[in-house]
Amino acid sequence: MWAALPGAVLVTAALLPERGLAQRAGQAAARIELELAAARELAVGAHQQWYELLTALKVDKLRIRGPQAGDEVGITTAGTAQAPVYRVVGQITARNELLLPGGRFSPRDRERLGNWLKKLREGGPRALEGDEKLPFGLRQEQFMEVSRDLGRPIEFETREGKLAEVLGRAGGSLEYRLLVDAAARGALEGAEPVLDEVRGLSTGTALAYLLRPAGLMLQPRPGADGQPEYLVAVADARQSAWPVGWKPQQKESEVLPELFQVLNVELTDVPLDEVLNAISERLKAPILLDRHALLWHDIDVHEVRINLPSKRTSYVQALRRVLAQAKLKYELRLDEQDRPFLWITTQYPVRAAAP
Fold it and tell me: Most exposed among 6, 11, 146, 150, judged by the fewest C-beta atoms under 10 Å?
C-alpha cells in the first residue's frame, strides 16, 4: 500500500465509511475523498506521516502523489443530495504543511484537521467558507494565489540597480498589481543602490529583502475588486509584512545537507564578507544579510576580520564560529519556491526594526 522508495510519492488508500447515525437512519453519510499533491522536496517519511494521520481521521479515500501542472486546491461535489461525495484536492508543501480549502495544517494539528473534516462531512463546502483567516486579511485561496504569484523567480540582475527600478521591473512580472503608498515614495526614490544580487530568488522573498534596508515593507491585501494586490508601505512593527523567507519544517540536514559536509578550514585575518561569499558558493545557497540589523549594531562585514585555527570541521560548525566573532547568527530559510538560503542577522534584537 505504501513503499518508501527513492522518489516515490504515490500513496493510496480506500477505507470503508464509518457506520454512524446517518446510516442507521437509512441515509448514507457524505464521503470525503482526498487527493494531495506532495512537493518533490518533501521527505519520504512525511508521506507516511500524513497517510497515518488522515486514515486515523477516517477519510474515505486518500491519494498522495507528486505535483502536476495545473494543480489547484479545491473541492468538487459528486454523488447525490442524500449521499454526497466531496472530492478534495490539497497540497503538501516542502515545509510539510497541508493546504486545504479554508485551512492550513501541520502534522501536529490533529484536532483542527479533524474539525475541518467534520465540518465538510456535515455541512459541505459552504460550511468551510470563512473558516480561517490568514495573515493580511486574505482567505485561504487568496493566500495560496499570492504565494504562487510571489514564487515567480527574479530573472534579471539587481546589484547596483535603483531600488525603484528593481521594484517596478519585478512588479511587472506579477499577476496582481503592485502599489506604492504615498508615504513610501520618498524613501523608495531616495534609497541607496541595491547592494545584493537576488537573481534566481522568488519575487516575494527578494522584494521583502530589498525593501527592508530602506525601511519599507511588502504587504499583500485584498483589493477593492476582490482580487489580491500588493502594497509597498513604510515599515511598521504593528503591521504584518511579507517575510524574508520561511522557516522550514524539516531538519537542516534534510533541507541543505551540504551544511554538514566536512572540510579542512584555516582562516587568518580574512574579511567576513569574503568568508561568507566563499561559503555561499560552496553550499550553492544564497546568503542574505540583514543589513537593517547590521547597520543598527554598527557591524560592517568587510571590516570584521575572521581568524580560525586549522581544523577539520563541518560547514555548519565553521559558519557558527565565524559568525560568533561578529556577534551574528544564521537562520536557514526557504523562499516561495522552497529554495534554501541562509539569513544572517545579529544575535541581539533591533528595536523598531522593520518586520
Answer: 6
C-alpha–C-alpha distance, residues 83 and 25, integer Å: 13
Cβ atoms of 336 and 202 closer than 8 Å: yes
Q: What does the alpha-carbon distance between residue 211 and residue 202 come to, in Å, rounded to a whole number?
A: 14
Quote the DSSP letter at residue 258: G
Name the grid cell of 256: 541543505
The pTM of this model reads 0.67
Strand segments, DSSP code E, in the chain are: 11-14, 31-38, 61-65, 74-79, 84-92, 98-100, 103-105, 178-180, 216-222, 228-234, 262-271, 287-289, 305-314, 328-334, 340-346
Residue 215: C-alpha distances to residues 85, 91, 201 (Å): 50, 34, 21
Interatomic CA distance for residues 7 and 43, integer angstroms: 9
Q: How far apart are CA 105 and CA 85, in angstroms?
A: 22
Residue 316 has pLDDT above 60, yes or no: yes
Between helix 182-189 and helix 163-171 the angle, nearest 10°, is 120
To the nearest 10°, report the CA torsion of 274, 277, 282, 285: 160
d(CA 174, CA 146): 10
> Which residue pairs from 265-270 have beta carbons closer than 8 angstroms and sit at least 24 positions apart in sequence?
265/308, 265/310, 265/311, 265/312, 265/313, 265/318, 266/308, 266/309, 266/310, 266/311, 267/306, 267/307, 267/308, 267/322, 268/307, 269/305, 269/306, 269/307, 270/305, 270/306, 270/307
Residue 318 is predicted with a pLDDT of 96
Q: Are 140 and 130 in contact (CB under 8 A)?
A: no
154, 200 contact by CB (below 8 A)? yes
Does pLDDT of 159 surpass 50? yes
- Using the structure block, give the residue that is written with the C-alpha cell 560568533: 324
Count of residues making up the chain = 355
Task: Enumerate domains of the chain plus CATH numbers.
Answer: 11-131 (no CATH), 147-234 (3.55.50.30), 252-346 (3.55.50.60)
Average pLDDT over residues 226-251: 90
